[in-house]
Amino acid sequence: MxxxxxxxxxxxxxxxxxxxxxxxxxxxxxxxxxxxxxxxDGGRWADPISAAAHARRLxxxxxxIVDVGGESTRPGAHRVPEAQELERVxxxxxxxxxxxxxxxxxxxxxxxAAAAIEAGAAIIxxxxxxxADPRMLPTCAEAGVAVCLMHWRTDRFIGASGRAEPDPRGIxxxxxxxxxxxADAAVAAGVAAERIIVDPGxxxxxxxxxxxxxxxxxxxxxxxxxxxxxxxxxxxFAATVLGGPAVxxxxxxxxxxxxxxxxxxxxAWGVRVHEVRPxxxxxxxxxxxxxxxxxxxxxxxxxxxxxxxxxx
Length: 312
Ligand code: PMM
Fold this sequence. Notes:
Blueprint: E1 27-33, H1 48-60, E2 65-69, H2 82-98, E3 103-106, H3 110-118, E4 123-126, H4 136-143, E5 146-150, H5 158-161, H6 171-188, E6 196-199, H7 208-216, H8 218-222, E7 229-230, H9 253-265, E8 270-273, H10 276-291
Parallel strand pairs: 1-2, 1-8, 2-3, 3-4, 4-5, 5-6, 7-8
């Protein structure tokens, strides 16, 4: 498959406030972790030069968005000092945005968000959904950028979120309610409703059953109305289809692509992935399947043409 151009995704009519593709297909967000210790790729692109090169590779493979993060959220990870997060993230964002890429920034700090927006970021991806830093939502509102609000039940934010224990009604009800509440908080802070993306937070304080239940319930989250981002890539639960979690995270890449196809078919706005190319293909398969037609009017003959008249 030919790589798509390294350009910003055009805004589609269905989602005026967030990036969208003109053809309406599920977006692929490539992950660029400028970190020492992220779950599957920590340390591989820990300096801005190799991170930007990696991001350019992902864009050449067809990523619609690149998500740049300077702080790992893996269990037990310590917070990175603010100055270090800024040093890791801002130069990468500036370079990619100057090249025309649509850049998202994975941060829980309003100061990092503000600097990244200044450098050209179009989306702030906050895994705390604005709970870690009270300035985050007002900062996004003032800048007029899109914001991704993710579900994460963690004692880091107990005071702010009010929930420390699982909801007895089940994970889907908990996630839906939390995302609705955080979206309301974002709107109250001045974020335009059409700029809000929500994310069930697969793998964040959730067991494998929780994650599969959330994917099973994805249509319900999509029906809430906001664009939904799904981050299953290389997470431990995805490897459960391989017979157990004791496999390297990259072994879950084929399962990730299958999840992408199914998530796209269920109406996901985007998927956040490490490996771009197979996920672009998976999203394209879902789009062609839904359309009942070849993508972009591509003509292709059948593999087994009809036998010539008279028979062979
Ligand atoms: N997962 C990780 C980090 N950031 N952001 C969003 N919106 N959704 C996710 O599922 C998500 C995220 C952790 O994965 P990584 O360490 O492999 O990047």
